[in-house]
């Protein structure tokens, strides 16, 4: 506000000074001219007066001369002494006048000279007249004439002087007129000057009044601004959001708001009593830092905010952020802003602890923590301390996961993984194998979540990795144990089926023997019936093949062979198992029925494993129905196309059915209700079916008995499922 004021007055000051200067010049000039006029007027008046006196004197002189002449002439003509009465006086006065005249024209050299000459002439003539008068009685006539002539000379001198004076007078009158004109001009100028001055004074007065009014208004505004600012500052101070103090640079605290007092635990009474002092409030270990701040304040007037601690009245410490500034140069007071950092420190500590907890969690839960950028390049990796064979720190930074050496999975799995990454989707348990320094495989399971910035742009992935080499080894061990177990299970089941199997083998052999005997008979006939023999030999071949198949199948079941996938027809596989168990079924009075769907797509599976499942389920059904004393013993084996585009196999029996409570544990290992049972059959079935990407479950058959179902995916899907599930168990 004051800036505008001074600017406007400066703007105004320049022309004002100019006007004042011009006016002053005019006034001075007018005054000077007036003074000159007055001087000249005085001089002219003096000259005029002197001229008048000169003329008067000359006039008087002329009169006196005339008187003298008349007297003398009278005397000379009459010689009457009465004419001489006034003589002495007149003569003297003529002399006096002549001298006075000389004095009057002293300043005019010509007139002065004339006056001097006149005075001399007068004196000489008067003396001459006196002489004539004295000698009058002796010589009259010519003396009188001489006298008259000599007086004429004086008169002529007087006339000369009068003429000169008159001439001067004309000149004086002209000058007087000029002076009059100048006077008129001067008066007019004075009037103008006065008018202008009056106008200027009025304008100035008005301007001043306006300026004062404006200044008053501005002052009022300024005042209200100051008050408003004051109110704002007060509000800030009283709001008690931050602590505010006013201090002296030596440390005494003069003013403080409630927030500050709360922070340091003092009350207002302590403040007014002057008990608040920086030294007292500052713990000894912070005093050196304080000293630096004081030096900074003295040097540049402000102190950058810094963290320190204050001692509360109760002796405890409070962390604060403090900054301050001196009021103005030359003073030793300033203002300080104090922020209570207790909450922030607590939050920082909580954050630190939480981070530590998180770190601990990560350390114990995961082996690797990693982050990648938008191009899937590693930007951060942390390895658990316990992790053996961790890559050197930073060795993989800047490279993508597929740029570091890996052994598994195959290219197709990596392609799919890249698709997931490029779609910025989360992923779980992506398993890969890396070469370990000892040449073995190191398995890692990686999970990650995509990261997006506040504008929703993808910035990379963050995730964890778990080393699962041990788990993989354990799985491998489990698989081989399962394979052993499954093998044992097969052998045991075959043991159960000995009678049935024996029948299945002996039956075609017996038929072969009988057929051979019949063939011999037909050959012995006359003539030998070769047609019959040929037919019988065909049957013999079939029977031999059948026996061979059974034996081959049994050998396959007994053999410990690695899993081998082949394309097979599910119905055919089922019929083979039914054939093998036929004897067992017949023996137990069970009627095995089939409902096999036609035109089912081929599946890809390990025949031995699949048939082991079917075999286990058939044996279980026969055993269950064997316990039931009454009712029909029927086992219905059906196949159908599965809703999820695979095949569905169901085995429904009319046995006692399943206890609903047992459904949950039915497929668990060692779950059995049989006195001689192992409880491994169904568990093995499940691991086989699941390893092939299928599902197995049980429910109640209607109207009675139990039903077991399993699905198997089709050929192409089978491939994908196997990748998800890992390598097939070597069962
Ligand atoms: P095990 O035959 O040695 O008992 P399994 O795993 O084959 O072992 O069977 C587990 C249990 O499931 C059996 O003990 C039996 O209680 C039940 N179970 C299996 N199949 C049937 C069925 N068809 N009907 C009723 N219960 C069954």
Descriptive overview:
The protein is α+β, with helices and mostly antiparallel strands and 731 residues long. It has five domains: 9-199, Four Helix Bundle (Hemerythrin (Met), subunit A) (Up-down Bundle); 240-340, PAS domain (Beta-Lactamase); 349-467, Beta-Lactamase, CATH 3.30.450; 470-561; 563-731, Histidine kinase-like ATPase, C-terminal domain (Heat Shock Protein 90), CATH 3.30.565.10. The protein has 17 helices and 17 strands. It has helices at residues 2-78, 87-104, 109-134, 141-239, 258-264, 268-272, 278-281, 287-300, 342-365, 411-422, 469-496, 498-524, 530-558, 570-587, 607-627, 681-691, 715-725, and strands at 243-248, 253-256, 302-311, 317-326, 333-340, 368-372, 378-383, 427-435, 441-452, 458-467, 566-568, 591-596, 603-605, 634-641, 647-653, 695-700, 706-712. The strands form four sheets. A five-stranded antiparallel beta sheet has the order 2-1-5-4-3. Strands 7-6-10-9-8 form a five-stranded antiparallel beta sheet, sandwiched between helices. Strands 12-14-15-17-16 form a five-stranded mixed beta sheet. Helix 2 runs antiparallel to helix 3 and helix 15 (607-627) packs antiparallel against helix 16. The longest helix is centred in the N-terminal third of the chain and has 99 residues, at 141-239. Bound molecules: adenosine-5'-diphosphate. Adenosine-5'-diphosphate binds next to helix 15 and helix 16.
């Amino acid at each position: 506000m004051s800036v505008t004021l001074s600017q406007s007055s400066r703007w105004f000051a320049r022309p004002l000074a100019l006007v004042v200067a011009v006016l002053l010049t005019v006034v001075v000039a007018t005054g000077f001219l007036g003074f000159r006029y007055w001087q000249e007027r005085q001089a002219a008046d003096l000259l005029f007066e002197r001229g008048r006196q000169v003329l008067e004197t000359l006039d008087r002189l002329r009169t006196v001369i005339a008187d003298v002449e008349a007297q003398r002439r009278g005397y000379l003509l009459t010689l009457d002494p009465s004419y001489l009465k006034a003589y002495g006086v007149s003569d003297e006065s003529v002399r006096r006048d002549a001298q006075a005249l000389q004095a009057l024209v002293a300043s005019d050299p010509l007139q002065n000279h004339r006056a001097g000459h006149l005075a001399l002439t007068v004196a000489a003539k008067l003396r001459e007249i006196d002489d004539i008068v004295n000698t009058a009685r002796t010589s009259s006539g010519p003396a009188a004439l001489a006298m008259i002539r000599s007086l004429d000379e004086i008169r002529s001198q007087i006339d000369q002087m009068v003429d000169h004076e008159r001439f001067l007078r004309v000149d004086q009158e002209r000058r007087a007129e000029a002076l009059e004109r100048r006077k008129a001009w001067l008066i007019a100028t004075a009037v103008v000057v006065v008018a202008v001055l009056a106008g200027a004074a009025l304008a100035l007065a008005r301007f001043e009044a306006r300026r004062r009014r404006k200044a008053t208004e501005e002052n009022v505004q300024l005042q209200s601004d100051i008050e408003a600012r004051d109110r704002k500052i007060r509000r800030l101070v009283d709001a008690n959001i931050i602590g505010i103090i006013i201090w002296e640079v030596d440390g005494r605290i003069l003013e403080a708001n409630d927030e500050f007092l709360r922070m340091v635990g003092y009350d207002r009474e302590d403040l007014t009593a002057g008990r608040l002092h920086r030294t007292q409030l500052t713990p000894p270990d912070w005093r050196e830092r304080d000293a630096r701040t004081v030096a900074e304040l003295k040097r540049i007037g402000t102190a950058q905010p810094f963290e320190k601690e204050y001692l509360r009245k109760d002796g405890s410490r409070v962390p604060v952020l403090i900054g301050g500034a001196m009021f103005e140069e030359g003073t030793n007071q300033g203002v300080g802003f104090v922020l209570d950092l207790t909450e922030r420190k607590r939050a920082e500590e909580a954050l630190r602890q939480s981070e530590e907890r998180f770190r601990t969690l990560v350390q114990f839960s995961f082996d690797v923590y990693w982050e990648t950028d938008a191009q899937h390049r590693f930007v951060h990796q942390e390895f658990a301390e316990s992790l053996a064979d961790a890559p050197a720190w930073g060795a993989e930074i800047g490279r993508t996961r597929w740029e570091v050496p890996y052994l598994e999975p195959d290219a197709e799995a990596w392609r799919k993984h890249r698709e997931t990454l490029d779609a910025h989707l989360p992923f779980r348990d992506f398993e890969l194998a890396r070469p370990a320094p000892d040449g073995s495989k190191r398995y890692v399971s990686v999970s990650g979540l995509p990261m997006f910035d506040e504008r929703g742009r993808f910035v990379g992935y963050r995730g964890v990795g778990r080393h699962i080499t041990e788990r993989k080894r354990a799985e491998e061990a489990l698989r081989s144990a399962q394979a052993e177990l499954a093998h044992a299970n097969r052998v045991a089941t075959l043991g159960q089926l000995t009678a049935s199997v024996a029948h299945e083998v002996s039956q075609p052999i017996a038929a072969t023997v009988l057929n051979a005997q019949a063939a011999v008979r037909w050959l012995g006939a006359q003539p030998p019936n070769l047609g019959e023999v040929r037919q019988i030999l065909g049957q013999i071949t079939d029977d031999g093949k059948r026996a061979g198949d059974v034996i081959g199948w049994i050998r396959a079941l007994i053999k410990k062979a690695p899993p081998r996938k082949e394309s097979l027809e599910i119905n055919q596989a089922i019929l083979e198992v039914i054939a093998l168990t036929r004897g067992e079924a017949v023996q137990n009075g069970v009627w095995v029925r089939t409902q096999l769907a036609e035109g089912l797509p081929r599946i890809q599976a390990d025949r031995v494993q699949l048939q082991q499942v079917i075999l286990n389920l058939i044996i279980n059904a026969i055993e269950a129905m064997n316990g039931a004393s009454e009712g029909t013993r029927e086992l219905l084996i059906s196949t159908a196309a599965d809703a999820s585009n695979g095949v569905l196999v169901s085995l429904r029996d009319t046995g006692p059915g399943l206890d609903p409570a047992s459904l949950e544990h039915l497929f668990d290992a060692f779950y059995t209700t049989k006195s001689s049972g192992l409880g491994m059959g169904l568990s093995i079935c499940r691991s086989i079916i699941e390893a092939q990407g299928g599902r197995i479950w049980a429910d109640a058959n209607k109207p009675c008995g139990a039903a077991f179902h399993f699905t198997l995916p089709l050929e192409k899907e089978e491939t994908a499922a196997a990748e998800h599930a890992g390598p097939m168990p070597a069962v």
